[in-house]
Amino acid sequence: MYGLVNRAVRDLVVSLRGEPGWQRIRERAGCPDEEFLSMQTYPDELTYRLVGAASEELGLPASQVLHAFGEHWILYTAQKGYGDLLDGFGHSTREFLSRLNDMHGRVETVFSEMSMPYFELQDHPSGEPERFVLLYQSQRPGLSAFVVGLLHGLAKRFGETIEVSQTDDRSQGAAADRFEIRIQHG
Ligand code: HEM
């Protein structure tokens, strides 16, 4: 993954445990880099090791670390460097998600070696307007909790509250991770 992602992991850890916490996680993960260059690609394995080490250091399951990382990514990382991009692709969680592939396509013009995830938005089978379905496909395993965190971060950004439940799981053999999302009103 691009260094931008590892920088964001570092940033999250520093905000929770300070610089000494980051040094412990870096050592635990056998990570030689003190800093990451946003525009350089690093092996995916390093990112997974950092998440694993953060999970041990914080005493939380990796899924909770990924969830926190997803929220942090939207509310801080993307907000800081890519606020215009976030503003330009929608004014609600649903609208933004319907254009997420286009948005990552725009990002890919700069991060040309990125391996883009693919998302598909569908109406919910119930037809209820406040509910919808999101399918997530990727070349990478194990990131569904990251997606859930990203979704909660997006909703917070748009002043919405959402409920998310995962109904299909690629790690259990499904073709795509499938999430049912409900926007809560009032
Ligand atoms: C301005 C906002 C955003 C920017 C700049 C951005 C950019 C990126 C970049 C650079 C990567 C790394 C890809 C690589 O190194 O191969 C990535 C990965 C990813 N992004 Fe985004 N992204 C944004 C918002 C979102 C949102 C809102 C979602 C979902 C709700 C999302 C879902 C993902 C996922 C799941 C990955 C992991 C890659 C994978 O599954 O293979 N991103 N994004």
UniProtKB/TrEMBL annotation:
Pfam families with a match to the protein in the record: HNOB
Name of protein: Heme-NO-binding protein
Domain Heme NO-binding: 2-165
Source organism superkingdom: Bacteria
Native organism: Roseateles asaccharophilus
GO molecular function terms noted in the UniProt entry: heme binding
InterPro entries membership: H-NOX_domain_sf, Heme_NO-bd, NO_sig/Golgi_transp_ligand-bd
